[in-house]
Amino acid sequence: MTGLIRFERPVVVQVSRRSSERIVFDVNDAAAILLRDLHHETHKRRIAMDTCLQVLRGKTHPPAARRAFVAAALEARILRSD
């Protein structure tokens, strides 16, 4: 299943000013960042988390999770490259 949850193109984020940029290759990476690094509960974060979970359950496809993750990262101002 690992191949099925990879993003077609990685997303680059920087979760804090002191951290280095992180390259997000798949749904697992995105979900980990959403859970561990984005502490404000927002609508876009919630949608991204739900969409990642749906991909992991096989109910939707990685592009949907990528779009939701990019929207949440943009809102949180951690997106560096889409």
Helical residues, percent: 40-55%
**Helix/strand-derived class?**
alpha+beta
Largest sheet: 3 strands, antiparallel
Please give the number of β-strands. 3
Organism: Mesorhizobium tamadayense
Protein name: DUF982 domain-containing protein
Pfam family, one: DUF982
InterPro entries: DUF982
Describe the structure.
It comes from Mesorhizobium tamadayense. Pfam families: DUF982. This is DUF982 domain-containing protein. InterPro entries: DUF982. The chain has 82 residues and is α+β, with helices and mostly antiparallel strands. The protein has a domain of 55 residues. Strands 2-1-3 form a three-stranded antiparallel β-sheet. Helix 1 packs antiparallel against helix 2 and helix 1 runs parallel beside helix 3. The radius of gyration is 12 Å and the shape is globular.
Please give a handful of descriptors for the protein shown:
3 helices, 20% strand, DUF982 domain-containing protein, alpha+beta, DUF982, three-stranded antiparallel beta sheet
What's a quick, concise take on this entry?
It is built from 3 helices and 3 strands; from the N terminus they run ββαααβ. It is an alpha+beta fold. InterPro entries: DUF982.
Layout of helices and strands:
Blueprint: E1 6-13, E2 22-26, H1 27-36, H2 43-56, H3 62-75, E3 79-81
Antiparallel strand pairs: 1-2, 1-3
